């Protein structure tokens, strides 16, 4: 059977394009087929329109070179489904053919228009050729085959099409330069070199455009940027063409211009090219005198010339949320109608600052127009040139130096009510020359820094989206019906993106491009931290790229510091960890100040995606976190051990028998120096305030650092630093016990045990088992506590075995067996001279026997050791002993002394325990009102700490006395 001859092509511009592959797949302006394999099949037929495509090639395309055994029969089903959407699919020998005009498919029309533009260029028809290239490039809607999942098609067609697109763009820009349009294409060329920094010809054109526009210093700077990029990335010096462009800038003055401000012939521009003509200009392009321009053509801004300008980029159609900041902007504008208003939106990379600024700007209607400029690393002089041109200043009237440009800009805006959006500002110095001066003018600045030094400016820190706003944004991009169908998966994506608008927009774009994906599938892909930044990339949007801009703009020491912070998994931290100033990273928007913590330290946090980026840079540039953590481990452990002593002074096994503020004697909580302590007779001793203030401050420090230290246990373990991991877990036990942080206690103990066992450290394992037993006992799980202690017994001997024995007595149901355990432990402690162990054993023995003498003796021992928390526990046991014996005044005295200690130390949960005992005493005395008040106060604290057992007891008293 003979293949039919294709019909002749239609006219060169025969109607609109019907099929699109230069972007997401498109049919007659509608949606492409849903299933991914259907899209790949249709794309293959479109790319070979009017050509026979063999079945083997189609199977290779659809199944990416791995077709199943049933591929040929399944392919027939796919073709049948496509025929319901697309006319002209014909079966031919050995394959299929799509019988549509090649000009109906955007890629073929693009190739034809480029060929035609090249023909016109060769014929010397420069203006027509430039128009042809423009028409060809206008067919692109995104990346070629953007939503087609076929690497075979991308290799064979996508990559060549993208390369032709870039080449056509460069050829069109070259023609624009010949036509004297250098100033018009500078912005486009900056975007081009930003996207393709290794493409030398793009740099050549940028240098030539800047030179042609009279911006010689920027042209020279662009050459240096190009050279640095090529050397750093490829290890190569610039090629001949780039070097020649540089030499032309060095050796030549700016191109001479005619009186009309147009480049003269002989500089690569046709002599008959039309001069610029616009509102307020004469036919030769010269602004007439008397229309707001003086004879010298410099001072601008007269009323005859002005026409409102709107240079804003388009608003985002799927903008969601941000009601609070939009209202803040609106209020600030309304409240200051008679003076310039300067507003700064700042926040981390990707939080949507630019989107908010543009959206807010579209809602405002200044009478004299809206200006927009992207600042980035550009100098104020270059930005001013663009702003002046937007205001109608002709090219030749733009002054050559910054000061003159500032004066002209201020003159032009002095009597105008403008809205100026300055996007991505680096610092205050860059912004100040760009502020309009007209009363009622508004400047909206976006920056990663708060620009605190910008005079008379108000700042708003833009954080991440709330949960509802984030889901709305995801649905706006991916389709609200998809988020509604999988609400739980949508929430998972939102949380894995950290509520960051840029990440959510990328996630939504990926879902929109892949209609066959479920939200649950994408959530699964994002859940792997090692791949999350790779997954959050779509087209020219990428979280990694956004973070990279800030990172590459940092000096070397700050870049190194950010990488080192990547060793941490903690959500926030204080500067002491690295002994470095973190403010420069906050100014760059990579960290956010969280204010002062309860210990008075400035804390810094970061977005989870920033953390992943820092960890990635640490891994790629420094080999990973182990070295960084090994260097910091000693300081973290020592600082934590010192603070632990404020909770548990004179801990057995540390080599210390007492703990006190360095340089001062130990004190009891009543402010009396411990008898016999060196220095106790020194005159002028300050009393207990200093001592308890230090203890309270150390406890606050531990509390403030809790999340950081908990995360550090896991960080050490993952890095193979087992010794620091188990020691830190052990040091944190008193903090968890004091604050009832049972979840953290469980997590760090489990990791610490694994670390001690991995290190082969039997004593460390026993210490962690002892801490685990304390946790189980606090939760009322005495059998589990006993099991942990029995597991510790074979691992230790001597004093540590005595401490395990003491704890076994505390969970022993048999009173006599418990007493025997306490006596054995007491004997070992006394023989070894362990005063802390002796105090603990005496208190346990006194509570078990109801022995007031033993409890009083333990109280004195804690006071000798300078241990106020041990003293408080002994007072509580004495209060309970007196209450059980009906000695209510003595019970109240001990309980109130205990309460005083807790309050001076700031220990809220133990304070509530004392209040509960006071409630029991008042109830026993028949004072219902006092009992109810004490129980109510205790219940509030127990509830906030999640202490359900004590909360139930307090609730019972309150109900009985209420």
From TrEMBL:
Entry-linked SUPFAM superfamilies: C-terminal effector domain of the bipartite response regulators (SSF46894), P-loop containing nucleoside triphosphate hydrolases (SSF52540), TPR-like (SSF48452)
Family matches, as Gene3D superfamilies: P-loop containing nucleotide triphosphate hydrolases (3.40.50.300), Tetratricopeptide repeat domain (1.25.40.10), Winged helix-like DNA-binding domain superfamily/Winged helix DNA-binding domain (1.10.10.10)
GO biological process terms held by the UniProt record: phosphorelay signal transduction system; regulation of DNA-templated transcription
One Pfam family it belongs to: Trans_reg_C
Start and end residues of each OmpR/PhoB-type domain: 9-100
Region (Disordered): 647-667
Highest taxon in the source lineage: Bacteria
One MF annotation (Gene Ontology) recorded for this entry: ADP binding
CDD domains, per the entry: BTAD (cd15831)
Full protein name: DNA-binding transcriptional activator of the SARP family
Organism field: Nonomuraea solani
Lineage: Bacteria, Bacillati, Actinomycetota, Actinomycetes, Streptosporangiales
